[in-house]
Amino acid sequence: MPAPRSTKPAGSKQPCPGRVPAVENAQAKKEESSQAKRSPSSPQGAPKKRSAFGDITNAHKTQHILGKKETAKAASKKAPKGLIVVGVAKNNEINLKKSASKISSEDTPAEKVPAEKADPSQPPANQVALVQVRPIEDIDKGQQDDPYASAEYAKDIFNYMREREEKFVIPDYMKNQPDITRDMRAILVDWMVEVQENFDLTHETLYLAVKLMDHYLVKVTSLRDKLQLIGSTAILIASKFEERCPPCVDDFLYICDDAYKREELISMEMSILQTLHFDINIPVAYRFLRRFAKCAHATMETLTLARFICELTLQEYDFVQESASRLAASCLLLALKMKNLDGWNPTLEYYSGYCIQELQSLVKKLNFLLTYQHDERLKAVRCKYSHRVFFAVAKMVPLDMLELEESLQKASRRSLS
Fold it and tell me: Is residue 31 very low, low, confident or very high in pLDDT (cuts 50, 70, 90)?
């Protein structure tokens, strides 16, 4: 790896002529003034709750409406004088009774249970459903006027990303890389974190670049002297995909200390894109983490702590096989426990698709990473999140393993009760 430079490369963030930057919302401006660039969809105010699901049928409403119609119809008819009035009124009464009995016979299956078979000690089926359904908030309801939130499509977008996760599962590829080790990969990712900071790139760019590098190494055997070239080219591709004004090729040649030529960088870019069939819209944990933080109404400090935990996993090869959504959910759950906040609520379980029992093993693995796995060569992430701009979350004391185990068990019992 090249020796770090003290100065930031000149011209790394040249403004694009003729391109007008989009107007960010008020929350995004506040975040960008205190931290590195982030998407403006960080958790905002508490959304309104969705009404609880009750009786999903409309049989009782139909009966009430039809009853009113029949009564009004009967009252509007002019009855003849004399004894015929009594007969017409009697016929109307009989018709009303037949109509009511017909409507009640077409009610829901739950209401067809005979009286002699129904258990008087049990409440009706519709009341049981009301007790079992827990309130779930619509986290996109309050952002209809925010064009950057894409509130109308947000749920479908993240469901689509969950489906794409199955396509981008990373196997254990190190056994097929005779000249590359886990430590080399960790050092490379540590360097990529520094590049993201120096170029002021978004976190999505960093996460996507690491994914591109891993997926390329799954299919191509590489030598160690080309590893940095792969990493820098992956950042270049991710920058073109995520950034409004990505750095130019000369900037990446500069940060590599001119170890590679322009032709080599362009050739590697073509190789990566062709190997991945230009399918580089890979789901990353950072996007899911921001989405799940909305469900928890997490503060910026709690979200930053979860981001710190998630970014530490980029360097660890043991976490490359984890799905992005499960990793993001586990990082947020651990951050909530470290801040002594309530854990997995019904809204989080609904939008993440994970119950607390499915996250316990990964949460304990993440806490072990925070507590024991400190490599002195890997300093970029911890130094980055030790700054006051990031609330110095890297300096927080990790939870005791036994204390975390007890807390997770209690939360699991509460969720099952």
Answer: low
Residue 127 reports pLDDT greater than 90: no
For residues 243-259, give the mean pLDDT: 94
Stretch among 25-39, 228-242, 343-357 having the lowest mean pLDDT: 25-39
Question: Domain map of the chain by residue range?
Answer: 171-282, 285-416
Angle value at C-alpha 306, between 313 and 141, nearest 5 degrees: 125
Q: In sequence order, which ranges of 77-153 are alpha helices (DSSP H)?
A: 84-105, 125-132
395-403, long-range: CB < 8 A, 24+ apart: 396/305, 396/338, 398/338, 398/367, 398/370, 398/371, 399/334, 399/337, 399/338, 399/367, 401/364, 401/367, 401/368, 401/371
Tokens of 209: 């670049």
Q: What is the pLDDT of residues 151-168, one digit of tens each?
A: 889 999 999 999 999 999
Indicate the CATH number for domain 171-282.
1.10.472.10
| pTM confidence score | 0.69
3-state secondary structure of 251: helix
285-416 shares the fold of 171-282: yes
Nearest to 139 by CA among 284, 369, 346, 388: 346
Q: Rounded mean pLDDT of 43-71?
A: 42
Please report the pLDDT score of residue 146 as a whole number: 81
DSSP 182-248: HHHHHHHHHHHHHHHHHTT--HHHHHHHHHHHHHHHHHS---GGGHHHHHHHHHHHHHHHH-SSPPP
Half-sphere exposure of 389 (CA within 13 A, CB side): 11
Alpha-carbon separation of residue 297 from 227, 291, 341, 377 (angstroms): 40, 10, 11, 35
CA–CA gap between residue 24 and residue 360 (Å, rounded) = 37
Question: Which whole number is the average pLDDT over 258-274?
Answer: 97
Q: At what angle do helices 262-275 and 227-242 cross, to 10 degrees?
A: 70
- Which CATH superfamily is 285-416 part of? Cyclin-like (1.10.472.10)
